[in-house]
Amino acid sequence: MTQSLADMRRDYTRDGLAEAQAPGEPFALFHQWFADAVNTEQLPVEANAMTLATVDADGRPHCRVLLLKALDAHGFTFFTNYESAKGQHLAANPFAAMTFFWPALERQVRIEGRVEKVSAKESDDYYQVRPLGSRLGAWASPQSRVIADRTELEDMVKATQARFSDTQPHCPEHWGGYRLLPERIEFWQGRASRLHDRLNYRLVDGQWVRERLAP
């Protein structure tokens, strides 16, 4: 390595986050921050990219990057193969955590809560607006399973294309959405000297409690 990891640092000076800027519930603030991320040109196109953490049946954590595909007053929705590794984790332990990081804005949002499957209609509605290649891929790929090589995957795609050559693919039963129902949402704004602003929302008896956390 050409540079010591211990010497790699960046001071955050762009903005602050005061209680006066934060509403009593977290969804309005998330919508505002997400809109800021979408409208910030320096950010990647996929401002909805997030890290999703799940825990398997043995208590081991796993992380991967996914895309948020829906957000409403109930929670945060993403889609995947129900038979994938993350699907198996959620079947065994239906809790997860999400992290959004928008470096150009020096902001991070952490979300934790219970996860449930969305309705079959919600899954089908989203499936039908996906590009054809993605719809076929949901059928073709045995997600998270070991395959011999790229050729095997390409052969499975060709077989799926042939299967649906005369009809549009419908949403597979093994594919669909999950909604994370938040119980905790933390908004992190980078500040100078690592004295960051952290406003945390906790759901207590159906009401959001806002509190400041030490950096």
TrEMBL record:
Pfam families listed in its UniProt record: PNP_phzG_C, PNPOx_N
Keyword Oxidoreductase in record: yes
Catalytic activity: pyridoxamine 5'-phosphate + O2 + H2O = pyridoxal 5'-phosphate + H2O2 + NH4(+); pyridoxine 5'-phosphate + O2 = pyridoxal 5'-phosphate + H2O2
EC number: 1.4.3.5
UniProt: FMN binding residues: 64-69, 79-80, 86, 108, 143-144, 188, 198
Pathway: Cofactor metabolism; pyridoxal 5'-phosphate salvage; pyridoxal 5'-phosphate from pyridoxamine 5'-phosphate: step 1/1; Cofactor metabolism; pyridoxal 5'-phosphate salvage; pyridoxal 5'-phosphate from pyridoxine 5'-phosphate: step 1/1
Domain Pyridoxamine 5'-phosphate oxidase N-terminal: 46-160
Molecular function per GO: FMN binding; pyridoxamine phosphate oxidase activity
Keywords associated with the record: Flavoprotein, FMN, Oxidoreductase, Pyridoxine biosynthesis
Keyword Nucleotidyltransferase: no
Ligand binding (substrate): 9-12, 69, 126, 130, 134, 194-196
Bound cofactor: record note: Binds 1 FMN per subunit.
Known partners and oligomeric status: Homodimer.
Its job: Catalyzes the oxidation of either pyridoxine 5'-phosphate (PNP) or pyridoxamine 5'-phosphate (PMP) into pyridoxal 5'-phosphate (PLP).
Protein name: Pyridoxine/pyridoxamine 5'-phosphate oxidase
Source organism: Pseudomonas mosselii
